[in-house]
Amino acid sequence: MTRLVIGRLLAAVPVVLLVATLVFFLAQLGTTDPAGVMLGVDATPAALAAKRAELGIDRPVVVQYADWLGDAVRGDLGTNWFNGESVTRELASRLPVTLAMAFGGLLVATVAGAGLGVFAALRAGRWQDRVITVVASLGIALPSFWVALLLAYYVGVRWRWLPAVWPSGGPGSVTGWIEALVLPCLALGCAAAAAIARQTRSSVIGVLQRDYVRAALARGFTVRRVVTHHVLRNAAIPVVTLIGFQASALIGGSLFVEFIFNVPGLGSYGVDAILRGNVPAVLGFVMVTALAVVLVNIALDLSYAVLNPKVRPA
Amino acid sequence: MSRVLSRLRANKVAMGAGAYLITVVFIGVFAPLLAPHDEQLAARFQDILLPPSGEYLLGTDHVGRDLLSRVLFGARYALVAGVEAVAVALAIGVPLGMYIGYHRGWVDRVVMRLVETLASVPAIVMAMAIIAALGPGLTTAMLAIGLVFSMMVTRLTRAEVLAAREELYVDGALAAGAAERRVLWRHILPNVAPSLIVQATLLFAQAVLAEAALSFLGIGAASDQASWGRMLRDAQLGIDRTIWPAIPPGVALFLTVVAFNVFGDGIRDAFAREARGGRLGVGAVRPAVPATSLAATLGGVPAAPPRAEGEPREVLAVRGLSVAFPVPGRSEPVRVVDGVDLDIARGEVVALVGESGSGKSLTALSVLGLVPDPGAATAASIRIAGRELIGLAFDDLRRVRGTEVGVVFQEPQAALDPTVPVGRQVAEALRVHLGVSRQAARERVIELFADVGIPHPIARLGAYPHQFSGGMAQRVMLALALACDPQLLIADEPTTALDVTVQGQVLDVIRELGARRDLAVLLITHDLGVVADMADRVAVMYAGQVVESGTLDEVFARPRHPYTEGLIAAIPRNQARSGELATIPGVVPAPWDRPAHCHFADRCAYAEAACTSGPVELRHDRAGAVRCVRAGGLQLVGVRPSVRPAERGAVAVGGGRR
Question: Which residue among A143, A217, A248 places its CB closest to the CB of B122?
Fold first, then answer.
C-alpha cells in the first residue's frame, strides 16, 4: 500500500509540472504588456524597459521558462508582479480557507448525496424515490453562484442567521470559522450532492440486482444486514470515482463562491491574478489547483483500492 | 433511427424539455421583437430596482433596465455561447478522438497523456487561464470553454472508437477491402454517433452554465451584453437591498440547463433502453386461494416411494406453487410457474429438469420466499422439515432460509460478494444464525472448506472470490450453503457455468456430502447427464408445469410424456446409431402465448384432437405422475440410465438461467 502511495505521488509531479508548463506558454500568448499596466499610460519608454528588466520579461521565453521551472521545483513560485510579495507565501496564506471550504463542501455533498441516494434506491419506484430523483435531477443543474447569491441574501442579509460575507480580519474563533463556512460549503455542495445522489441511487439499484445480494438473502440475513455488509461497499466503488470528478468541479466552483462571500481564498486570488494578467500569480494558482485535484484523486484511488480488492496490489 | 425517435417521443418529460428548448431558441432569435423595452436603455433614472409592475413586468435592475427584456435577450447570448463552445469541442474532439482511437500508437499515448493531465485542472480554471492569455470577451471565453470540452469529447470518441473497432463488422469491412477512411466514416462513426449526440447535448448545458459563470466573474459577456451571468453579477451589486433582480436570470439559466440535461438523458434512454432497476427484488409467497389449488393437488402427490419409518421423511413438500409476472401491455399478470408440486425426502436427490424458461429456477427461489420483483408467487402449502412457510413473517422465514436450507447458485463468482474475503462470508452465516464466537466460526469454516475439498483451507480464508477458479468458488458456495447444517440443499444449475473438467468434481462433492449428511437435495439442471449421474427421482418441467415425474430409472427407461422422450432423444450420446442429433421442433412458447390445452401439443409428434380440447391435469399413479392426454396409449422410447453418458456437460437440452 505504501508503495502504491509513493508511486502515485511521484507520478503526480510530472502532471503538475506539465500543467504549469502548458499554462506558462499559454500566458506568453498574452498581448498585454504588464509593465504598461503597472506604470500607467504616461510611462516613458525607458521606465517601461527598466520595469520589464526588473520583472525579467525582457529575456527570451525559454530562459524565463527554465528559470521559473528551476525555482518552482524548489518551491519558489516567483514574485507577485503587482505587490512584490512571494507568490508561494501568498498562496500558502490563502490555501487553508479554500481547503476548509472545499472539504466542507465535499463533506456536505457526500453525506447528503450518498444518504439520499441509498434511501431512494431502497425505495425504488415509490414516491420517496421519485421525489429524490426529481430533486436530484434539478439539483445538478443548480449553478453554485446562483445558490450562493440566494443563500447570501436570505440567510445572510434578510434573516441574519449567518454572516453573508467573510468577517474582516478573519473569523476569530472556531465557531466563527464554522459560521463563516456554512453558507459557502452549502452553496458549493448542492450540485455535487445531487450528482452523488443520482450515482449512488443507480449504483445501489444495480448492486441490489446482483446474484450475491440474492444469495445473501437466501442465506437468511436481514435486509438491513445485507445492505450494510454487502450492498453499500460494492455500490460505493463507482460513487468514489464520481466524487473524484466532483472534487475537481468543486475546486472550480470555489472561485465563484469565494467571490460572492468575499472569502480571501485561492479562488479570489486566482480571479484577481487572471483579470490583471499577473502571470506568476496565475501560474502559482493553476499549479496549486492542479496539485489539489491530483492529491484528491490519489486519495480516492487509495480508497478505491480499499473498497475493491480486485485493484489492490498483491 | 425511427424507433429511437418514437421512443423519444414517448418520453413525455424529455419532450417537454425539448419544447422548452425550442421556445428558448425562438425567444433568442426574435428577442428584439419580443422585448418590450430596449436591452440596454435605462428608461428613467428613477426606475431603479423597481418591483414587477404593469410597465416593467419583471421589474428593473440597479440602473433601471427592464429585467424581462434583458432575460429575453439573455437567451440569445446563452445559445450563441453554447453553439460556439460545443462546435469548437466537436470540431476538435471528434476527428482527434477518431484518429487516435483508430490508429493507436505513440500519437494516441501522447495525446491521452496530455488530455489526462489537463483534466486535473478544473474546467473553469483552465478556461480562465486561456482567457487570461487571449483576453476577456464572450467569443474568447466560449472558445476557451470549447477547448476544454474538446478534451472530454476526444476521450469519449476515442473510447467509443476503440470499442467499435473491436466489433467484428469493422474487421469484416476491412477484410472486404474497404478503404480505411471509408471504414472510419461509414462503419465506425455511425456507432460512435449516439453517445456523441448525448454528450453534445449535455455539454451544451455545461456550456450555458460556463458562459454564465464566466460572465458572472466579469470575464465573459461584456457589461453591455445582457447575458444571464452578467445579470446575476449586476444583481449581486444590489444584494443589500433586494434579491429580486437575481431571480429572473437565475430561473432562466436553471431551467435551460435542466432542459438540456433532461433532453440529453431522454436521447440516451431512447438510444439504449436502460434496464429499469427494481427494488430489493424479493417477495414472500402468498397463500393460494385454497378452493382451486388445494383441490387440484389433493388427488394425489408425487410422493417418494413408501418407506418403513412412520415419521414423515419429507424435508420439502410444495403444493400448488404458481408464480406470475406482470407483462407490459397485459392487464393480467402472466403465470410463469403453474401449480407445481414437489416432494423431497431426507437423503434423496430430486432433479428438476427443463429448458430455459420452463420455470425451474423460479420454482426454487419461490421455495425460499425470494420471488424476484415484480413477480408474485402463490402456493397452497410449502413445508420444510414439516414447518409451514406460507404465512410466516419475514423474520421467521429468514431463520428457515438460514438454518434449514442451503442454496448453491449457477455462477459462483457472481453469487459471492467480491469485496469480502470468502472466509468472512462463510463465517458471517455462522455468526448470524448460530451466534458462535469469531474463533469458533473460523475453526468451523476451516472444517467446512476441508469438507468441500478446498486445498490449504487456512491459507484460503482471507482470499477474495476473484482469486478463486470457478470450481473452487463453487466449493466455497457449497461450504456457505452447508455452513448452518441445513436439511435441504437447493442447487440451481450448480455446474453450468463451470469448465467441463471440474463439473464432475463439484457434483461428486455434492453427492458425497449429501449422502453423508442425509440431505434432501433439489438439483435444478437442464443437463440430463447430470440428472442421470445424481438423481434418485426426476421431475420434468415444460412451460411452467411439471409434465412428468417419477424415479430416475422409470422416467429414463420408460418416459410417458412425449416431451421427456424428446429430451432423452436429444442427448447426443443416444444418437450414435442414427448419426443425426434429434431435436424437438419449435421453441418453448412464451408464458403469455401458452395455450389453455396441453402446452406441448403444438410441438408434439403424437398430438391428436383430444390434446387441444382443454387443460390437461397431472395424473398420479404408483410409477409417478404424467400430464398427457395419451399417456398409457403411447409407446415412447427411453434409455437405460445405467448406460449413463460419460460425457457430462455435452449432454444438454439447451437452456439454463444465463
Answer: A248
